[in-house]
Amino acid sequence: MNQKQQNGTMNIAFLIYDQVEALDLNGPLDVFIKANVVSAGSYNCYTVGKTRDAIHMEGNTMAVIPSYDIQTVLQPDMIVIPGANPDYVMEYLQDDDFQNTVMSWIKDQYRKGTIIFSVCTGSMLLSKTGILDKHEITTHSMLLDTLEQYNPKSIVKRNVRFVDQEQLITTAGITAGIDAALYLVEKHHGKELADTIVTLFEYQQREFEH
Question: Domain named DJ-1/PfpI: which ranges (predicted)?
Fold first, then answer.
């Protein structure tokens, strides 16, 4: 953890793309926003897309305009990669344009030391970047076998809520993103702040392995 993360504001970019899963995105986002409500200046959260064109979230229920595109985005300390329905995720894996722009940008950021935090099937989107190689990783239970097939150099963990590999955090399905975000708040700023957010959420945490 660098000095900026310990004592200053941490820039967190939330990747958004067409058909992104709503709770994958908004669960962790709200954890970090609540951290700012309780402890001002903890996190600077913003969204980033391939372009600044509006994207449609899962089910086409709403359109969201990214704060930045990948060319102009404020330098992040951490990038959150929410997942999507597995069918869409597999399409993005085969989408050369998406891989050569968005995923290439994420790979470059990882090389610079930026923390990558994937939620749910978001880890599958990283399968062609090399970022997952030689790491313990996880994803939604529906895609564990597929994640293992696409990442033979990785160790796929089952029956865990999330896996922290320092510069890479991956989570199990959907609500596990909330658990991992709370864990990171505690890691960065202490248990008292994380517990306060749990109280504000009225969130019923359960015992889990990670």
Answer: 11-186
Asked if pLDDT for residue 82 goes beyond 60, the answer is yes
Q: How many CB atoms lie within 10 A of CB 51?
A: 12
- Residue pair 119/81 in contact by the 8 Å Cβ criterion: yes
Classify domain 3-201 at the CATH topology level: Rossmann fold (3.40.50)
pLDDT recorded at residue 2: 39
CA-based Rg of the chain, rounded to a whole angstrom? 16
8 Å CB contact between 13 and 80: yes
Residues 89 and 94: their CA atoms lie apart, in Å, by 9
Strands (E), the chain: 10-15, 43-49, 55-56, 63-64, 68-69, 78-81, 115-118, 136-137, 155-156, 162-164, 168-171
Q: Rounded to 5, what percent of the chain is helix, strand, coil?
A: 45, 20, 40
Domain map of the chain by residue range? 3-201
Burial (CB < 10 A; 0-12, 13-18, 19+), residue 75, is exposed
d(CA 165, CA 167): 6
Residue 41 binned pLDDT confidence (cut-offs 50, 70, 90): confident
Q: Which pLDDT score, from 0 to 100, does residue 4 have?
A: 46
